[in-house]
Specification:
- With 346 residues, the chain is mainly alpha-helical.
- It folds into two domains: 191 residues, Orthogonal Bundle (Lysozyme); 127 residues, LysM domain (Membrane-bound Lytic Murein Transglycosylase D, Chain A), CATH 3.10.350.
- It is built from 17 helices and six strands.
- A two-stranded antiparallel sheet has the order 1-4.
- It is globular, with a radius of gyration of 22 Å.
Length: 346
């Protein structure tokens, strides 16, 4: 848009809107929150419109893992504060990716960081690790404002602030935190406001192309490079790079556990024909007697819920798809050999 949006709104109106939001943190209004909101919807409105657009790429992934781990969906706004929804973000302290993991925290949650891969930048791997970390922190503090503060400055620094305050109320502990952490929860509140009320400020999301939004996710075990994948799928190496920012050299290394590959829907059939049909399928009575079909994992679906839909068992589902872990990932393609007699829907 050619002119900045209007920010002619009173503090009373902002407070009313904030109180109407469904937020995991207790909201206490102060003028700094209004200024942060102003940063998002007025001064930085062009970047905010890009953030709104990028949410179409990443929010479904966040929502999937938050639902699987049974955490508040509104925590999907946290990477707006951390990285402005950019997997390429790198802080001055060396934290990287959508969720801004440091090397130490990445190692704690088994994210691979080497000269070929930086899983802190992988939207799927980093999101699951971040959600696990948030779940761990909530188990310690049982208060989401304190959890966010700990996510920002670390549990040790937060514990020190709690001791100094003699309180476990974030808004009373806040003064004893480092300056960045004092602003962290208010900035999360401001980011939440942006996502709830951007239309009231005439912000227009700048969405990425449909090719980037309409995707499927697969796991590959063999080493492959992006040029090879591009020639197989007809998808440009530039698009593959954009969707898979965790691979530093445009190469997916070989792995027995597999690495994630996100592709546009338009290219997935060709890739599956070349790669997945070459993979062995574990034989079972359902495999021999069933009708083969594909199921795309939806937000929050689990091995148990998918097995229930297709009236098979989890062990069969895992064997058909070479799954070794306990969680499905969003937009994963599953091969199903459910009996044609089953009255299932997908």
């Amino acid at each position: 848009m050619s002119t900045p949006p209007n920010f002619n709104i009173s503090e009373a109106s902002i407070l009313q809107r904030l109180q109407s939001m469904n937020s995991p943190v207790t909201i206490e209004y102060d003028p700094s929150i209004r200024e942060m909101i102003k940063d998002y919807v007025l001064l930085g409105h062009k970047e905010s419109q890009r953030i709104l657009g990028r949410s179409a790429l990443y929010f479904p992934i966040f929502e999937h893992y938050l639902k699987v781990y049974r955490l508040p969906e509104q925590l999907k706004f946290l990477p707006i504060v951390e990285s402005r929804l950019s997997p390429d973000a790198l802080s001055s302290a060396g934290a990287a990716g959508l969720w801004q993991f440091t090397q130490g925290t990445a190692q704690q949650f088994h994210l691979v960081v080497n000269d070929q891969i930086d899983e802190r930048r992988d939207p799927i791997r980093a999101t699951e690790a971040a959600v696990q970390y948030l779940a761990d922190l909530y188990g310690k503090y049982r208060d989401w404002a304190l959890v966010l503060a700990a996510y920002n400055c670390g549990p040790a620094r937060l514990n020190q602030a709690i001791r100094m305050a003699g309180e476990k109320d974030y808004w009373k502990v806040r003064a004893y935190l480092p300056k960045e952490s004092q602003e962290y929860v208010p900035r999360f509140i401001a980011a939440s406001y942006l996502m709830h009320y951007y239309h009231d400020h005439e912000l227009i999301p700048v969405y990425p192309s449909h090719e980037l939004q309409l995707t499927r996710t697969v796991k590959v075990n063999d080493s492959m490079n992006f040029q090879e994948i591009a020639s197989i799928t007809g998808v440009s190496a530039e698009v593959i790079t954009h969707l898979n920012p965790g691979y530093r050299r445009g190469i997916i290394p070989a792995s027995t556990n597999g690495h994630y590959l996100i592709l546009p829907e338009a290219g997935i059939a060709a890739f599956r024909k070349m790669y997945h049909n070459a993979q062995p399928v574990a034989v079972s009575s359902n495999t021999l007697n069933g009708m083969k079909r594909t199921h795309i994992v939806k937000v929050g679906e689990t091995l148990e819920s998918v097995a229930s839909i297709f009236k098979c068992n989890v062990a069969e589902l895992k064997s058909w798809n070479n799954i070794t872990g306990e969680h499905l990932y969003f937009r994963q393609e599953l091969v199903i050999y459910a009996s044609a007699q089953n009255n299932w829907k997908s």
